[in-house]
Every structure is written in C-alpha cells, then in structure tokens.
Amino acid sequence: MNLLYSQLKPHHTPKLPWIILILLILILLLPLAWLTLRPTGSYLNPQPRGLEASAPNTPGVKTLAFYLGTAQTSLTKARQLANTNSYQTDSDKQQIIALLNQALAAANQAVATYPKDPRAYQQRAEILVSVAHLDPSVTPLAEQDLRTAQSLSAGPASPAGGQLPQLPAINSIQTLPIEQASLAQNLIIAAPASQGDSLPEQGVALHSNVTKSTVILPAGQTELTTDNWKLKTNSVIYLIPQGPTLNHPLYIKSKTSASFTLAIDQPLAFNLTIDYWIINNDN
User: Fold this and answer.
1) Are 94 and 101 in contact (CB under 8 A)?
2) Contacts of 40 (CB under 8 A, 6+ apart)
3) Extended beta strands in 142-258, E state
C-alpha cells in the first residue's frame, strides 16, 4: 500500500532554478529595451530615432526689446553725461566711453541674435553715427547698417535672392583713439539732426550731415512729399518703415535740393509710420 501511494504521489520540481533563469533573462533584456525606448525628441521637436532629446543651448539669449532698450539707455546716459557737463574730468570721460561700449555691445548682440530684424541694425547705426566725429571710419559701417535695415524692412523678398546681406564684424569702439581725441577738450556725443532743428546744439553740429526724421504715409495713399531743408541733390536717403508694408517696397520716387517724394506700389489700409535718414557726404 505504501509503495502504491508513493508511486501515485506527484513529484514537486524545485522552483528556485526557474526564478533565477527568469531574472537572468530580464537582466539581459533591460539594456535592449532602454536602447529601443529612450527619448528621440520632444513633443514639439521630434528627432530621428537614435538622437537623444536635448534642450536648446541658448541660456543667455534675451529678447530684442531687452537688447535695444539696453543699447538706447546706455547711449542716452552717455549723451547726457557728455553734453551737459562743461567740466569733464578724466573719470567722466572714462565713464562716457564705458557707456558707449555698453551701448554698442548690446546693439551687436541684437544684430547677432536677431539678424533679420531691421531695428537691430538701425539701433547700431545710431550709435555709430554718434561717435563718427571722433572716429570717421565708422561712418561707412553706419551707412551699411542703414542699407541693411532698409532692405529688411521691405520684406523677406527684398534682399537679393532672399539672402541676408553679408555684414563685416563691427568691434567695440576703441577706447584709446577716443581718449586721445578728447584730451584737450570735452567729449561730445553727437545725435542725428532732426527736421525741427533750426540752430543745432553742439552735439548735433559735430555731425550735422546725418539727419533722422519721421513721417506718416496716410492709409490709401501711394505717395508722400516731404520737405527738409537739409536735403541736397547728392543726399542719400534711407527709408525704414516702422510697421508692415505687406511686401510692398518703399522707394524714393523723386528728389530735389529741399524735398523728396516717397512712394509705395500699392496703397495700404492703415497709416504707416516711416523713419527716414538723410546722409550728406560733403567729401
């Protein structure tokens, strides 16, 4: 009887080897699963399989308004300190030069970060014009920035072939030449002359061959004639609209010694504010 029972009793196979085998298989499969399922991009920026998702490497980028505001604030402070102080010390001059360098550095950063925005180039041109009487070599660079701003303002199809014009790198204003130029006199920071200047202030008079002003092209009109007594027959005019032109380019239709007519090929349904710069080369 006991023999028969022992034959009928089921044999129990030990479970431990099976558990170890399963664990070994899982351990071998985990690296393969990680390689297959690792992230290949973000929800908004999917990447091809095999490329890991990563955050944009732009930790120091600011908005264009930040760069332009910083540049204009530093330039305004430099003008105030230079043009309202009749008894400048060496320390005052160093502070003025430092403010100019801060303004130009911010404008350079705006151009480098937002190379297709005309406001960055216009801001840098204003800074360069302000010191052109101290370093005449920056005048062609200012004009180049204005040409670029004018081209970009007309729309994406304006530059030749749709490509951004190539600009030379513009370094910070050199401290030593400005210091040498101002040792015997106060340091004056020029500002572009405006239409309403009957007797320019000292700062403007130093570089009065540059005039900046603003006009408004009324809605529904395709032409506007503007009088400006600083305009000459050989003057160069740059038109920089401060609003969208809907890819309709602005251009100078005619010019005399005291006025010019700007035009657009199609009328707009809204008023358009336009900054214009006049540069007189008296060479």
Assistant:
1) no
2) 46, 47, 48, 49, 50, 51, 52, 53
3) 210-217, 223-227, 236-241, 250-255
Torsion of CA 118, 124, 130, 132, to 10 degrees: -100
Parse the chain into domains and list their residue ranges.
Answer: 63-158+174-190+199-208, 209-283
Angle, CA of 217, 110 and 195, to the nearest 5°: 35
Count other Cβ atoms within 10 Å, centred on residue 262: 22
Q: Is the pLDDT of residue 62 over 70?
A: yes
Any idea which residue has 């600009």 for tokens? 167
Per-residue pLDDT tens over the stretch 153-188? 876 544 444 455 555 556 666 544 455 555 456 777
Cα(28)–Cα(51) distance, integer angstroms: 23
> What's the confidence (pLDDT) of residue 51?
37
Would you tell me how many other CB atoms lie within 10 Å of the CB of residue 105? 17
Query: What is the distance between the alpha carbons of residues 97 and 107, in angstroms, rounded to a whole number?
Result: 15
**How far is 185 from 91, CA to CA, in rounded Å?**
14
Structure tokens at 229: 């007594």
Question: Burial, 252: exposed, middle or buried (Cβ in 10 Å; 0-12, 13-18, 19+)?
Answer: middle
Sequence-distant (6+) residues with CB within 8 A of 218 are 224, 271
CA dist., res. 229 & res. 252, Å (int): 17
CATH 2.60.40 fits 209-283, yes or no: yes
Share of the chain above pLDDT 90, in %: 24
Provide the token pair at 224: 């506007």
Cβ pair 145, 188 in contact under 8 A: no
**pTM for this structure?**
0.64
